[in-house]
């Protein structure tokens, strides 16, 4: 009975040993093998054999693309404006042994690198440039950190700027500035409209005065021609003037009699003498 127990224990030990020696690495992963505490090899996807009790697999690394969120941070631009920016980086590990032995925590290290580079790049740009130059910032970020993380066996596929916005204080200041600018433009537009209206009104009065003057000249010419014709017809120099003046006098009285305020209109009994009186004759 005792011998059977020993055999069973040996069988179990053999099974455990074989299980420890055979390593199945899934696709998309690589395992780091340490032999007696020192890096020995990297296991590729598939079945691998290691030495039980001597070799260990302390690290299992994915070779798929890794998405790293870069936390939001305040960044000061060249013109002392504060903006909030965050990003996302896409990386993949091409050399697992460098990734695990080259840096304590490669994810935190990359996040810090991106944040530091982002502050440096935006710090050399004005607020307007920073808000409108995502592609430029992205290109500079990739250029700034690609070489550094390559030493850790990590490839930076791309880095994208997720959000880059003015801080709450800056947004309020920009809104106030925009409102003031709109108010200024409205005032200028209103003043320009009033100026143009005044100019047009003055032009209208000038044009009306010119036309009134021309009309008076035309009327004077007509009166002169009428007097000349009547003078030629009757051969008297005084009567035509009295005739025309009397005609206008009567027309004026007629207009006065038809006005709304007219109540009683008295006509002179001796109209010719009245007209002569107007001529001081």
Topology (elements, then pairings):
Elements: H1 2-21, E1 22-25, E2 29-35, E3 38-43, E4 46-49, E5 55-62, E6 66-76, E7 82-93, H2 96-102, H3 106-123, H4 127-132, H5 134-150, E8 154-166, H6 168-234, H7 239-257, H8 271-278
Antiparallel strand pairs: 1-4, 2-3, 2-5, 6-7, 7-8
Summarize the structure.
This protein is α+β, with helices and mostly antiparallel strands and 281 residues long. Helices cover 58% and strands 23% of the residues.
Q: Overview of this structure, please?
A:
The chain is of the alpha+beta class and 281 residues long. 58% of the residues lie in helices and 23% in strands. Strands 3-2-5 form a 3-stranded antiparallel beta sheet, covered by helices on one side. Strands 6-7-8 form a 3-stranded antiparallel beta sheet. The protein has a two-stranded antiparallel sheet with strand order 1-4. A hairpin with a 2-residue loop joins strand 2 (29-35) and strand 3. Helix 3 (106-123) crosses helix 5. It starts with a helix and ends with a helix.
